[in-house]
Amino acid sequence: MRILSLDLERYGPFTDRRVTFRRDARLHVVLGANEAGKTSALAAVTDLLFGIEPRTRYAFLHDMPQMRIGAEILGSDGQALRFRRRKGNKNTLVDGSDAALPDDALAPFLGGLSREVFCRAFGLDAEALRAGGTEMLNSEGEVGASLFAAASGLRGYTTLQAGLDEEAANIFMPRAAQHRTFYQALARYDEARRAIRQGELRSGDWRELNEEIEGAARRLDEIRAERARIAAEQARLQRLKRVTPLVAEIDALTGRAEADADLAALPEAWTERLGQSLAQVQDATGAEAEARAALAAAARDLAAIPADEGLLARSEEILDCFRGIDRFDKGGIDLPRLQGEADGFAQDLERLKVRIGLPDAEALRTRQPTDAARTRIEGLLRAGRDLAAALNRITAERAQRRAEHARITRPRDGDASRTGDDAGSRRDRAGEEPLIDPAPLRTDLKTLAPVRDDVARRDALDAAIRREAKQIQAQAARLAPPVADLPRFAGLRHPSHEAVARFGREMEAAERERNRILDRGETAARALAQTRERLRRREAGRPIPTRAELLALRAERDRLLAPLRAAAMGEPGAGGPADIVRFETALAAADRGADDLVADAARAAEQAADLLRLDAEEAEAEAARTGLAAIDARVEAGWAAWRRAWEPAGIEPTPPAEMAAWLTEVESLVADHESLEARRAEHDHLVARIEVCRAPLTDLSRRAGLPDLAGLDVGLILARVEDRVAALATTWEAAREAQASARATAEQIARIEAELAEATDRQAAWRAAWAEAVRAIGLPPGAEPDEAESALEAWRAVPTILREHDGHLRRINGIRRDMEAYRAVVAGLTGGLAPDLASLPPSTAMKALHARLQEASRAETRRQDLARRRAAADEVLAAAGRAAEAARAALSGHLTERPEGVSLPVDTDPAALLARLLARDALRRELAGRRAELARAADGVGEAGLRADLAAASADAIEAQLRQLAMDDEDLDQRGKVAFADRDRGERRRTELEGGIGAELALAQRKAAEAEIHSTARQWAVLKLASLLLGTAIGRHRSGQQDPLLTRAGTLFAALTGGAFAGLTQDYDEADTPRLAGLRGAGGLVPVEGLSEGTRDQFYLALRLAYLEDYAARAEPAPFIGDDLFLTFDDARTAHGLEALAAFGGQVQPILFTHHRHVADLARERLGASVDVLEL
Fold first, then answer.
1. Residue 523 domain-assigned (yes or no)
2. Secondary structure of the chain: what % helix, strand, coil (to 5)?
3. Which domain, by its residues, includes 953?
4. What's the whole-number mean pLDDT along residues 917-925?
5. Are residues 519 and 445 in the same domain?
6. Is 268 helix (H, G, I), strand (E, B) or coil?
7. Cα separation of 1053 and 396, whole Å?
8. Region (Disordered) spans which residues (predicted)?
9. Which residue has the higher pLDDT, 809 or 142?
10. Closest Cα to residue 899, out of 259, 260, 274, 282?
11. How many domains does the chain have?
12. 3-state secondary structure string across 766-819
């Protein structure tokens, strides 16, 4: 299986990101910088194939239900599948339209792999690679264990198998031991069996004992029944005792309620309105008194506050001067400090004068050396020290080279200084192969070196041409709609990508408009239905009053009032008693209509609003229907134009979105076909060019001393010749090495002598320049560099100290000037506004003056506020008087509006009347509460029944009966305890006789021991089976896959090590155990423990890749995923690893994820077109 594309639609940090893998690439390198999403893309491959985990950590950008991954995969049989994976619990495999795919749709491509097996066997990172090498080291390279680790990706199995065997031995071994858990459980089992045998069942007075137990049980039942009867009678008497005071209270409250019968007709609502009217009168009267008091207080406070106009007029001047206090005070604090620092700098100048040797401090200012002079001296200091170091180094190097030359030129075996020709003569006399100068051969071979690339490109082109032709044919067959002839289609007229996009946009816009209109219509229909339902429900209830009906009733009332008014005025046409009755009826009807309209004002308003809303919603629904018909016609016209656009090409189009992708695929296939034809022409040209080189290569092989190679392929001839020339060059260079070394050493000695003379001359010139330069800093010409460095250090400090000293003097003068100006301003203010402050320091005087200004400002603000309060209090007093008068009128009106049949004395006190009415209402509530309390205390018994029982028994009789029942119950309780003790004692005795003392405990111990024996036996069997299964698996890998797997692994190991090792082999230790070892090119064996850490990692990688190749030959392989696999490799090892992965890519698709750009660059450099580098 190969992944052709990976769609990261909504996963991790990605949104609509597609990663396309080239089909012809032998290695894919996915490059992602830090925070670019490499880890998320790596996890996406596993989640794509096996499902997104329930608690995924890649839902930080998109919500879990929205997560989507897609891909197109290709099986080894050419079958392709495009699918998507969504986050969910079932039906997570979907196609492009989110339609569910079968759960086993990926089974033909995965070949039965599980998530864990895929991650272990087909996934590898640098940490796992290093751990695999360590595992081989731990198993000492044992063949079966190493092959099993590489195949499964498991680690720690050697230690695991030993641990399983040890744990099983601690449970059971044929030889008994007390520390083994099986024998411990067996001992407890035997002990329990002995305890059971010792306890025997004894015979006795069995029947008598059973009869005693049954008699005690009967007595207990009789006692329980009698106690239940007593409890019921006690409950009845307690209930009567409990309700007696409640019945008495109810009777008393009923009598008190009948005393105020004259107020019974006044309803509680009238009483409540009376209380409200009294409260309003009291509140209004109190508010009027408070307003009058507030007005008097405001006037009194305003008269008590004086005003200071002089200070307020010059407030800005005072504030400006007040803001300068901090600066004035800071100047007074800084002045002594600055003066002290200035004095300190003057002392520093005196000390520098002494260090440099000048007569006074002023000379420091006039005789300072220039920057150029100081820089020159500093440069000469560095140059002098460098020259001294160089002389010491050159002298030491001359002594070393002279010793080396003496060692090289010392005669060894009598021929160390002979030339290469002499060595060649000796080789001839010894019968060895004569030396051949490789330079002419290398020169000729260099001109033929490009043929190597041509051969490699020819082979790659041949494989690529066959593969691409097959892929183009397969892809063309899978197109929908199909294209029979790609070149012919390219010449036909068909819509461009822009036209397809335009059609897509138009159709999408029309569809969006249609959906919008549909939503608009649905919304209008829902609103219309809701409005009609509200109208229906509202009209189904009581009639809704309207203002028009109320106006009609009032008109009728006014019409009937006219004759009565005429009668009252003595006018003709006056009405009679019937008119009065009709008027009162109309007046009552008008009042009821007004009351109904007020009560149902909300319903009436809602009814009117819904009627208006109904008209608007009907118009909206009709507009939506009209718009929908128009947009449907527009959509149909658009689809017709879309089909006409594809008629010249003979294509029945699908929707524009699909045709855009289809057109891209077709154009890509046409371009691939053209590229394929170009590659075929290039391949033919390469074959011809390679054959031209056959004759020169054959001649070169004869000159290099090789046998006839004419029948071999040109590439093989070139490889043989290159190896031969490299061997000749090694031999030739070794023969010349002694002479070249001696000559080079002599040349080095001569060069060092010249350098020493040159350094001596430079030192003399330096001394002359030094003598002249040190005069600028007051030193004699013979002064040493250390003296000059000390003088320079002193001169470096002079400019800074001079600058600081002068700056401090300037600041001192400025502060004194500013302080004198501030004193003058303060004196002017205090003289005109507060002469009593003139004798104070400026800061103190200004603070006092500012405090007086603040007090004057607060007083003025207070006066303005009190004036406003006095005006407001006057208004409040007038309003309170009006409110009090209105409240008293309302109270009088309420007293006259009494219910019919109720009369009150003319001089009735409203407050006393309210108190009587409130007392009456409280009495009624209390009576209702007592009756409710009686119902709760009566346990469901009616009041009449309770009164009947109370009439039949006095309180004393009830109490006497309760006492007697309590004594009877206590007696029964004691008798019950005796009967219970008799029964319990008999039952325990019977239990002892049935099982014997300790039999039950011994039986429980035996069962527990049996369960423990079963558990330990099962645990031992599981451990032994696990160890045997693990050993069998390792043995199978050792015996079944050893030969073919080791051969291929050896080839890969040689490639990974760049030829440092020729392959892998197996060796046997003292116990005849086969163990893996590396085979060097010279034939030596290196065991696993002798390999370096990096080479051991390459060893493990070779085994893993060989196993996956073997797996691919037997089943459908998944892609091999490497995560920064070469993190611990240097560039050379990384390059060899990339080449090995590319060689492995013919059978399994290798995908290497990395965040190191140099890995991608190495891949491009070594593999060229065979690598597919993708950047996230």
1. yes
2. 75, 5, 20
3. 206-260+919-995
4. 70
5. no
6. helix
7. 48
8. 398-440
9. 809
10. 274
11. 6
12. HHHHHHHHHHHHCCCCCCCHHHHHHHHHHHHHHHHHHHHHHHHHHHHHHHHHHH
